[in-house]
Amino acid sequence: MNIRFEQTFVNNLLGQVEMIDVMANYGVEVKRGQGLNHFYVAKFCCGKSDMDNGRIKIETQKFMCMNCWYGGNAIDFLRTVVGMSFYTAVVELARMANVELPVVDPKELESLKRKQDAFQLAATFYAEYENDYLVTRGIAKEVIEKHGVGYAPGGRALRSFLEGKGYTKEELLDYKLINSKGMDTLFHRAVIPVSRNGKIIDLYGRSINDENTSLKHLYIKGDNILGGIDQINPKHIVLLFEAAIDRLVAESHGVQNGVDAGGAGKFTKEHAKLLKRKGVKRVFIVYDGDAAGRKGSLKSGQLLSDEGMEVWVGELPEQMDPARMIMECGKDAFVSALQQPKTFEKFKMYQELSKYSLTDVEEYLKVMKLKQIFLGE
Ligand SMILES: [Zn+2]
């Protein structure tokens, strides 16, 4: 078939299936490793029957035989080992990843690219505007510059700018960059771009005046974002914050390698899988010291554990969030509050136990029962 897939589609697709699963599906013996690599039996290239030579580098999801140096990605495997055409290999990966094949209509491709460009242009436009709000919240100038953080002046500033670049009102409305009244969607907000694989996929607008608005947080698209994902080093512990502000304040004070899902309850299974695909093995959850934060930690921690990651939960003092704690008590106080994190399993038990009152005999007996179940005591 004569169909060209967009390179970005193919790259994204490759990021959504695990090489080890592709091999296993086609009868190659595989073994999950605990470190940087998974293993496979290099029978198809060298006729070996042990796992001494076949390596899948988890970070890149590429395979390579240490005996003959034959290797590649999942598409290379399906083409050269299984014998598929490029087209069939892509279709097969899409099936495995449960991803819909793109409708390869050149007009549609063009309009997707226009939309992508509009978000990029909007981020660049907003980055030109400075506002002290984020600086007063404790975010360093270098961090603001590094992440292309800016400010939305509101009115029709962005609309005029993008119309000047050839976009129509209808397009901007469709992208949700302007509202039905024709005004910019982001109005008097600090703007933090959200990128994935080097492309701006969304814009987060943080209201700069908490008293004046019921809507502190506003995402243009708001679906499935994980702020900071492009910048993390998967080999180190990844910190999971509730909010972008927490992540950026922490980074400004030397606490690096954070991501945020834009809310305590917003972390999803997709996010957990995304981190896993990036090769992340250890996650430290640092949500706010309140009921929503604890509930979110339980949910996020479970999703991460289910993907086989090691998870810890740090607990901040009541009513403290990371940004506030760093600003009010200093970075050292923040770091020392997190010195003794609980493993996720332990955190879960404490949350369960906290539902009971130990001054009541009936409750005491229930707790004893729980201890038996959890701890075998
Ligand atoms: Zn080989």
TrEMBL record:
This is Toprim domain-containing protein. One of its GO terms (cellular component) is cytoplasm. Transmembrane segments: none annotated. The keyword Zinc-finger applies. Residues 7-103 form the Zinc finger CHC2-type domain. GO terms for molecular function: DNA binding; DNA-directed RNA polymerase activity; zinc ion binding. GO terms for biological process: DNA replication, synthesis of primer. Residues 130-213 form the DNA primase DNAG catalytic core N-terminal domain. SUPFAM superfamilies: DNA primase core, Zinc beta-ribbon. Keywords: Metal-binding, Zinc, Zinc-finger. PANTHER family: DNA PRIMASE.
